[in-house]
Write a structure and sequence with these properties.
154 residues, 5 helices, alpha+beta, Alpha-Beta Plaits, 2 domains, 19% strand, 4-stranded antiparallel sheet, Arc Repressor Mutant, subunit A
Length: 154
């Protein structure tokens, strides 16, 4: 874990809210000179605290407004099967996230799609044929209450 001070937190909070702000705007917001702010941001990037910058897309407006959370169980926990599954699920279109789980299912996969028919296609073409899959349980989100990419650093 990297030690961060209050200025680092302020920079990270500001960039999480608006990753496109200029260095001058960021410096003004956190109370640093532009050069000092730039050095801190570069250090946060070099230390991999800031992994990357991205645009957040409105899923609804691009036809991917339905979220499905898919619990997947595999036939075994053999390392080579887990590795094959993870390599292949990473290439499935519409998969937003995949997590190895403790509990009833081996993996929890977040899929975004247009509608139920679109999910059925994704399920048949991709999910059901992933290596070692013996059980798939899909839950459709009715409404998203909160969905953020920002980490609360306080």
């Amino acid at each position: 874990m990297i030690e961060l001070d209050a200025l680092d937190h302020a920079i990270l909070d500001a960039l999480q809210a608006d990753g496109r702000m200029t260095n001058a705007e960021l410096a003004d917001q956190v109370g640093l000179s532009a050069s000092a702010c730039h050095r801190r941001v570069r250090r946060l990037e070099t230390d991999k605290v800031i992994e990357r910058y991205a645009a957040l897309i409105n899923r609804q407006l691009v036809g991917r407004g339905v979220s499905v959370f898919v619990e997947i169980s595999l036939e075994s926990q053999r390392e080579e099967l887990l590795d094959r599954f993870e390599a292949e699920v990473s290439n499935v279109p519409h998969v937003q996230g995949c997590h190895l789980m403790a509990g009833n299912a081996d993996y929890l996969v977040h899929v975004t799609c247009a509608d139920v028919a679109d999910y059925e296609r994704i399920h048949r073409e991709y999910i059901a044929v992933l290596p070692g899959v013996i059980s798939v349980r899909s839950s459709f989100a009715i409404r998203t209450i909160t969905d953020t990419t920002a980490l609360d650093l306080q």
